[in-house]
Amino acid sequence: MTSRFHTPVAPAGSPERFAYGTPLLCMGSCFAEHMGRKLEERRFQPVTNPFGILYNPVSLARGLDRLREGRPYEARALFRHGELWHSWDHHGRFSHPRRENALQGINRALQAGHHLLQQAPWLLLTLGTAWVYRLKDSGRIVANNHKLPASAFEKGLLPLQEVTAALDNALSLLPDTRVILTVSPVRHLRDGLVDNQRSKATLLLAAHELCRRFERVHYFPAYELILDELRDYRYYEADMIHPNAQAVDYVWEVFLDTYLADEARSAMQAVERVLQAIRHRPLHPDTEAHRQFCRAQLDHLQKLKNRYPGLDLTEFEAAFQQRLSAE
């Protein structure tokens, strides 16, 4: 009899898969950020979180609508708190001491996302929490509190119908977009464990309903992979909330097995070998042996470009050219 020491989670197979050259948009909370970063490292070309990390589905739906419209933000949309200018639709990474700089960064990211949406991309959408904060003076749901006092907001749990309706409306207006829908495995402990579970349950039910309504929406069980299959605190960071690098790598591999086209796998593996070569720091960079190594890598990159036309290896080539010119 074989003993089993974990609970395996098997994602439903995807009838369609992405490859190099496939437009990819990653939006939502930390899982979308992690996957977007890994895709970028391997020279896929995703647009990742053009509003910064977003947690609640209403803000995500609002962001998708704004990306679809491509309507730029105006200066009046920003407000000043502390020493920074902020947007209620954006994460704090867009905040800036200068109003024009904040606005420029916001609109640059908006245009990148808008351009990508015109290409019928794959959308990786990660829902973080159904708890929202509404401004008391307007009732507006905000994407980020930007460290304003709690007295400025009313906190509430979105009902299932409102979560589903917001995302249904946004996705209905993107009929050619294929959607990978996930629920973040990160627990929002500031809400308390019971309220965190209520929130996640709402999001899971909404995801189920959206998959039922849209054939092109596919659920990926990132939440279940972390909380059920990797059910151990050794897979968490020291805060015991966020999955650690080992856990993220495991979910990444399952994600690739589910969605990456076979022909893209060999190209990605070749890119990963080049990444290892770039990260290698030679003991003696001023030697002829290292120069030969760099030239061999440049020759290898040219062959990869010829074999996989969808690959953008410009940054890799520049890295090895810089090493040669510095010697």
Structure description:
The chain is α/β, with parallel strands linked by helices and 327 residues long. It has two domains: 24-260, Rossmann fold (3-Layer(aba) Sandwich); 269-325, no CATH class. Helix content is 46%, strand content 13%. It is built from ten helices and nine strands. The strands form three sheets. It has a five-stranded parallel β-sheet with strand order 2-1-5-8-9, sandwiched between helices. The radius of gyration is 22 Å and the shape is globular.
Strand and helix map with partners:
Blueprint: E1 24-28, H1 30-41, E2 46-48, H2 57-69, E3 78-81, E4 84-87, H3 99-117, E5 122-127, E6 131-135, E7 153-157, H4 160-172, E8 178-183, H5 193-213, E9 217-219, H6 222-229, H7 245-259, H8 262-279, H9 288-307, H10 314-325
Helix pairs in contact: 2-3, 2-4, 4-5, 9-10
What is the approximate shape? Answer: globular
Reported for the largest beta sheet, the result is: 5 strands, parallel
CATH topology of the largest domain: Rossmann fold
Seen as an oligomer or otherwise, the chain set is: single chain
- The assigned structural class equals alpha/beta
Gap between N and C termini: 62 Å
Count of spatially separate domains: 2
- Total of helices: 10
Q: Percent helix among the residues?
A: 40-55%
Tally of strands: 9
User: Strand sequence of the main sheet, in spatial order?
Assistant: 2-1-5-8-9
State the CATH architecture of the largest domain. Answer: 3-Layer(aba) Sandwich
Overall average pLDDT: 93
Q: How much is the radius of gyration in Å?
A: 22 Å
Question: H/E order of the elements?
Answer: EHEHEEHEEEHEHEHHHHH
